[in-house]
Design a protein that fits this description.
Length: 154
């Protein structure tokens, strides 16, 4: 039996490969989060998978994979460790990253919110707010926070 922590890295790698083969940059770099945002925009519409899109089948597993990808990208950028509770019935939703500075974030939950609410819950803006140095382009939500300098690490 595999643990949730094993599933996190396997799912992050799986979705990275799937995104890459579908024309999205998925190399775990901060700038690749723009492609994750584009993927979410092109394949979901405020809580609904686009018919015939890449989220139309296997939605739960794919959102988990995208969340793991986002979390791993943040973790690689800021440092930290994944944490999970295999006994938690909602463990896939509750996997978290404890960042090097001690903050705890739930990237799978954020991706689910992005799916449900649309661009207002941008994953790129999320990463910027956490302190990831995402290059400024194409995501107005993230750009807004970078221009204001909110939550800038010192």
């Amino acid at each position: 039996m595999t643990s949730l922590l094993d599933d996190v890295r396997t799912s992050a790698d799986w979705i990275a490969s799937a995104l890459d083969s579908s024309g999205y940059r998925a190399d775990f770099s901060p700038s690749s989060l723009h492609d994750v945002e584009r993927f979410m925009t092109e394949h979901s519409n405020s809580g609904t998978a686009v018919e015939g899109g890449l989220l139309a089948a296997g939605l739960g597993a794919r959102l988990f994979g995208v969340g793991c990808y986002v979390g791993e990208t943040v973790r690689l950028s800021l440092g930290g460790v994944w944490e999970a509770d295999d006994a938690d019935a909602a463990g896939e939703l509750n996997v978290r990253v404890r960042l090097a500075g001690g903050a705890v974030v739930w990237p799978v939950r954020r991706v689910v919110k992005r799916f449900q609410n649309g661009p207002e819950d941008s994953v790129t803006a999320y990463a910027v707010l956490l302190g990831v140095d995402v290059p400024v382009f194409s995501d107005p939500q993230a750009d807004r926070y970078k221009r204001r300098g909110l939550f800038r690490r010192r």
